[in-house]
Specification:
Length: about 290
């Protein structure tokens, strides 16, 4: 009798664990798949595709070894260096990005140098889940045709961990400030960057290039399906700047492989918005 009671107790103790083990992931994707490229192309009225941004990633095993950013304005290949399995440097010729760490595992500071001269410094903050909540760039040397001395991006996450709001604050060299805000909506399936291991470095690399305007999109957990961007005046939203919808295509493992973006761009001096269509594609390598 005692043996039967013991068996019943063991079965009851094991049952919740077994049931939990059988539950599927909320948005499953093969964890051993690594993002190798992300492209963003303008779809012209003729149907022709024109490259606006290409990103490429290489790995040794699962360790990131290089980041390539190609756009109509720049072409950079950063080779990634590690110390004790932490990213400490990324080098593109005479352009060098270094990362600094505090007591945690995420970098809290970064420096962009060219020919040994510091161009920009970055400060980064994170929430308890390790998601970036703020990145501030202080420019010591202004890029060509730029009046912005500081860029500050703040990221707000909802209770499911999605980056739902991105706020941008630009300080100009005359002391004036321009503020913008972007609100995102999401699918239930994962974004292409969800399991990218070196997001802080990628964020700094992206901001070091002239084309990136919304670094928060790199920190999306689920794939974005829509966004609305506004100008901010005296702390409140004023006129809308952009309204975009995304139509994604997923493979059998829920990885996003392409998506069509339909954007409506607004200007205060123009009565009707301008329509812009883009196509984004993503590729992966899976073990």
């Amino acid at each position: 009798m005692k043996t039967k009671i013991l068996l019943i107790r063991l079965l009851i103790a094991f049952l919740p664990v077994a049931l939990l083990g059988c539950q599927p992931e909320e948005n499953p994707v093969i964890s051993t798949c690594l993002l190798t490229s992300a492209t963003d192309q303008l779809v012209e009225s003729s149907g022709k595709l024109t490259d606006e941004l290409n990103r490429f990633f290489t790995y040794t095993g699962s360790k990131l070894t290089s980041i390539t950013e190609k756009s109509t304005q720049s072409d950079a290949v950063y080779v990634v260096e590690y110390t004790n399995d932490r990213v400490v440097r990324a080098t593109n010729g005479q352009r060098v990005i270094t990362l600094g760490y505090g007591s945690g595992t995420k970098p809290t500071s970064s420096t962009l140098s060219l020919n040994g001269t510091v161009q920009s410094t970055f400060g980064m903050e994170y929430n308890e889940s390790g998601r970036m909540t703020k990145i501030v760039e202080d420019r010591r040397v202004l890029p060509n045709n730029s009046l912005t001395t500081q860029r500050a991006y703040t990221f707000v996450y909802d209770n499911t961990g999605n980056l739902s709001l991105e706020r941008a604050r630009f300080t100009l060299n005359d002391g004036s400030v321009v503020e913008q805000e972007t609100e995102y909506q999401f699918d239930t399936k994962p974004s292409a960057y969800k399991r990218f291991l070196e997001l802080p470095l990628l964020t700094v690399v992206a901001l070091s290039q002239p084309i990136e305007t919304r670094p928060g999109r790199l920190w999306h957990a689920n794939n974005c399906t829509a966004l609305q961007s506004y100008n901010i005046n005296n702390g409140s939203r004023s006129n809308i700047r952009e309204s975009s919808t995304f139509t994604p295509v997923y493979d059998a493992e829920n990885k996003v492989v392409s998506q069509d973006q339909n954007a409506r761009l607004f200007q205060a001096s123009v009565p009707n918005p301008v329509t812009k269509n883009n196509k984004q594609t993503f590729s992966y390598v899976c073990e």
